[in-house]
Amino acid sequence: MTELTTAPLRVAREGDPPPPRRHLLAISDLDRNSVDRLLGTATTIARSLDREVKKLPALRGRLVVNLFYESSTRTLSSFDLAAKRLSADTMALRSSGSSVDKGESLKDTALTLAEYDPDVIVIRHPHIGAPQFVANVTHAHIVNAGDGKHQHPTQALLDLYTMREALGRLDGVHVAIVGDVLHSRVARSLIQALALVGARATLVGPPTLIPRGVESLGCEVSTDIADIEAADVVYVLRMQRERMDAGAAYVPSLREYAAEWGVTSQRLRPSQIVMHPGPMNRGVEIAPDVADSAVSLISEQVRSGLVVRMAVLYDLLAGGPGDDARPLEVA
Ligand code: NCD
């Protein structure tokens, strides 16, 4: 059996300044080099997961807390498994069933968890800025797992990883992001991440669901569904009904939305690939046969989520850009 090891620890010397505490709150925390480094670590990790023994010792003795104030299937399960596969201890706290139900504030919840000395707190919250707030009141490295409609940086990274695996490159790739951009933190992070790696993004959707001025993030906008044909990747967004103000009519009806904007096989070119961050509204933004077809990378995105989140946790705690960083070595 092959041994899985990491490079030896550099021993800190007396008088060394404490290493800066890094977070992943938004894509703006990253530059091109850090994206390349994270995707490279994810590739190394993916190779290690082909083996019989999938656990790496890299984060033994570390604690990763998952603090989720909104529903999640993929993000929570992948962060939990990512930490476990790196041998860290994990704790998950969901708002429902915790003292949040009894009215405990985010600050008191964060301070309570901070007493366990977590190395990383992964947080999802409906309010923009909640991850930054937790970064201000604890000593942990913070990872934003989605704050309102603001940012979801690890989703964008896993999407870049998935595209690069499928197409062999990111530079010059053209991605059409289709649907409810207005309520989508996934879209905001992905547009910025694509710009960082030299890819091109076109937002496609009804004018009511495209935020005004979004072009300033570095993308083009179209209100013609036929324009998805020009893209290499068609990235479909969920209609986020839970974030739509009651009473505001963003679309006449879901049936009309599906007819006008749904991604169907008739609207795709044969060589295009299709992605969706999940959860899907089958038959609304994406036709079921497209979701299940060979051009769909939706299950690949889930697998990428695990290795990319392992890379992010490793990078924050043991890797990173500094001189004493240890690139992950898998023997
Ligand atoms: C996304 C989210 O929560 O922002 N889902 C996810 O993380 N896979 C997208 C969505 O909810 O539509």
Outline the fold blueprint.
Layout: H1 32-48, E1 63-68, H2 74-85, E2 89-94, H3 106-114, E3 120-125, H4 130-137, E4 141-147, H5 153-167, E5 174-178, H6 185-196, E6 200-204, E7 220-222, E8 233-236, H7 254-261, E9 273-275, H8 288-291, H9 298-317
Parallel strand pairs: 1-2, 1-3, 3-4, 5-6, 5-8, 6-7, 8-9
Helix pairs in contact: 1-5, 1-9, 2-9, 3-4, 5-6, 5-9
N-carbamoyl-L-aspartate binds at residues 74-75, 146, 152, 155, 185-186, 238, 240, 277-278.
| Structural class computed from helices and strand pairing | alpha/beta
Biggest pleated-sheet summary? 5 strands, parallel
| Total number of beta strands | 9
First-to-last CA distance: 11 Å
User: So what's the overall shape?
Assistant: globular
* CATH topology assignment of the largest domain: Rossmann fold
Radius of gyration computed on alpha carbons = 20 Å
What is the CATH C-level name of the largest domain? Alpha Beta
Report the total helices. 9
Helical content stands at 25-40%
Fraction in beta strands: 5-15%
So, the CATH homologous superfamily of the largest domain?
Aspartate/ornithine carbamoyltransferase
Mean pLDDT: 92
Order of helices and strands: HEHEHEHEHEHEEEHEHH
Which CATH architecture of the largest domain is right?
3-Layer(aba) Sandwich
Which small-molecule ligands are present, each listed once? N-carbamoyl-L-aspartate
* Poorly predicted regions: 1-9
Domain count, please report it: 2
